[in-house]
Amino acid sequence: MSSEQPLYRIQFINNGKNYQLYVRELNQSTMFGFIEIGDFVFYSQSAVLVDPSEEKLRTEFDGVSRSYIPLQAVIRIDVVTEKGSARISDLGDNVTAFPYSPGKKPT
Predict the structure, then answer these.
(1) So what's the pLDDT on residue 15?
(2) Which DSSP letter does residue 71 get?
(3) Whole-number Å distance between alpha carbons of 103 and 107
(4) Main-chain dihedrals φ then ψ at residue 41, nearest 5 degrees
(5) How many other CB atoms sit within 10 Å of the CB of residue 16?
(6) Buried b vs exposed e over 52-66: b needs ≥16 C-beta within 10 Å?
(7) Which residue numbers in the chain have pLDDT < 70?
(8) How many CB atoms within 10 Å of residue 44?
(9) Which residues on neighbouring strands pair with residue 40, listed in sequence order?
(10) In the prediction, which pLDDT does 3 show?
């Protein structure tokens, strides 16, 4: 078994966008209904090309040691072996926010 900390890829909804982050710490929060994430990992490649989505995330989470994500906002959590690029993308029409009342179009 590896002595290195696991790397998690977490996808969640925030302000109508799909956030994908890589973190080393992921726990059930002591606050009911929240996931606690910490030790953010950003892809640092020495190339000249800069991903504006990752730079926006890097700026948004600059100085943040822990973040609390509501359980109903979490789309997926994976344990991965390699880090990738963190990103923000539009949700599209295939993700519905919870709770959803049938017959009413989600906003």
Answers:
(1) 86
(2) G
(3) 12
(4) -120, 120
(5) 10
(6) ebbeebeeebeeeee
(7) 1-3, 44-50, 92-107
(8) 9
(9) 23
(10) 61
Does residue 13 contact residue 75 with C-beta atoms inside 8 Å?
A: yes
The answer to whether the CB of 35 falls within 8 A of the CB of 68 is: yes
Q: Which residues contact 24 (CB under 8 A, 6 or more apart)?
A: 5, 6, 7, 8, 38, 39, 41
For residue 101, which amino acid is it?
Answer: S
Q: Write the DSSP assignment of 36-95 as a string of letters.
A: EEEEEE-----SS---HHHHHHHHHTTT-SEEEEEGGGEEEEEEESS----EEEE--SS-
pLDDT attached to residue 90:
82
* DSSP of 90-103: E--SS--PSS--TT
CB 43 within 8 A of CB 50: no
The amino acid at residue 21 is L
Residue 2 token pair: 């590896």
Phi and psi torsions of 62, nearest 5°: -65, 125
